[in-house]
Amino acid sequence: MPRRIEVDALRGLMLVWMTCTHLPTIISTYGYQPIGFVSSAEGFIFLSALFTGLVYYRAAMREGFEDMRSRLWNRTFKIYSYHVLMVGLAFIFLPLVAKGMNRPGLHNLLDFYFSAGPVRAGVDAVVLIYRPPLLDILPMYVIFLALTPLVLTLATRIGWRYFLGGSVALWALAQIGLRQATYNLAEHLFRLKIPLNEMGAFDLWAWQLIWMFGLWCGVRWEQDDLPAAEWAKKIWIPAAVIVTTLILLRYALNYGVDLGRFEPAFDKWHLGVVRLLDFTCVAALLIHFQQYLKHLAVRPLIMLGQASLPVFCTHIAFCFLGLAIMKEHPTVVGWGQVALPVLTFATMYGVAKKVAEGKKRLAIPAQPSFAAATSR
């Protein structure tokens, strides 16, 4: 099955959206959840799972499950290596800038690092326990990817209904405090010395639901048994009504509207039920109107999507740079408001271009020299 470049472009768009949200500029005010109670993180995780299910289930069917597991472990190790590299660079350079140049934004980012010390923080980060802000998405990705070989193997043998049902059950338990309960148990058994809020903002018990359904969709897509277009056609009208309503509610919050006791249903970190509903409806609209959206699959977005891992790490580096140059201000001010995003996106595109050129060189077989050819 040929690669769908519009899906690559969509993943590239998620990276652009994520960058606009994370960079400490005025853009983040408008880039955070502009289409309701949906963020780029949901799209990034789902699309990553979709490609994982699609590519590695195909590998299992062609080369066998042992080869699939080996390739998935290699992929997991590669992403884990990126995480360790990012953490290492962050822990080496950022504390020097935070203390030496008095940068409260960076200091707050590494609060546990300064309280626990570099050795303890480094060890906890390497074993994926300590997950500071901006450095907590890759560890979640690594954990989900590390469990994927087992999921794909068993789901193929006994069926997906058990895994999807279990995933929904874990998500439901997460809404009533599963994360806190497991933390309390681990703290009692293993004497954890790290606060729960330093173990990443994302509740993995809840977010695994997006990963699991993304895997399932990828497998069904590879089996040519994913009637997404028919499903979207049936529900696109109510989906449009729901998305429009939630967009209006999202912006009404800026004018004093209070969610009150319903706020947990909108919570991002625990993946509240309204967020799931909104994400599903947005997905239905994207699928239904995909023939019109194909024109937005421009080459730069495709390249960003196809080089998502190094591009993601590049955007994190520039977020750190933004925190360093904004000093005591809440955001970057002055010339940095323009220069930082321009430099960030130019570098992200440059990285994506280098990755594309590298893949192209690897794909072209070596040609024999003229002398070797004429000597035969």
Task: Walk me through the structure.
- The protein is mainly α.
- The two termini are 39 Å apart.
- It has 18 helices and no strands.
- It has one domain.
- 73% of the residues lie in helices and 0% in strands.
- The C terminus is likely disordered.
- The protein is globular, with a radius of gyration of 22 Å.
- Helix 1 crosses helix 15 and helix 3 packs across helix 11.
Rg: 22 Å
Largest sheet: none
Secondary-structure content class: mainly alpha
Flag low-confidence runs: 366-376
Supply the number of helical segments.
18
The string of secondary-structure elements, in order, is: HHHHHHHHHHHHHHHHHH
Shape: globular
Mean pLDDT: 92
Number of strands: 0
| Termini Cα gap | 39 Å
- Helicity level, as a percent range? over 70%
Query: What's the domain count?
Result: 1
Strand content bin: under 5%
Task: Note the topology.
Blueprint: H1 5-22, H2 27-31, H3 40-63, H4 65-100, H5 104-109, H6 111-116, H7 118-126, H8 137-158, H9 161-174, H10 178-190, H11 204-222, H12 228-252, H13 273-288, H14 290-293, H15 299-306, H16 308-325, H17 336-363, H18 370-374
Highlighted features:
73% helix; mainly alpha; 376 residues
Write a concise synopsis of the structure shown.
73% of the residues lie in helices and 0% in strands. The chain has 376 residues and is mostly helical.
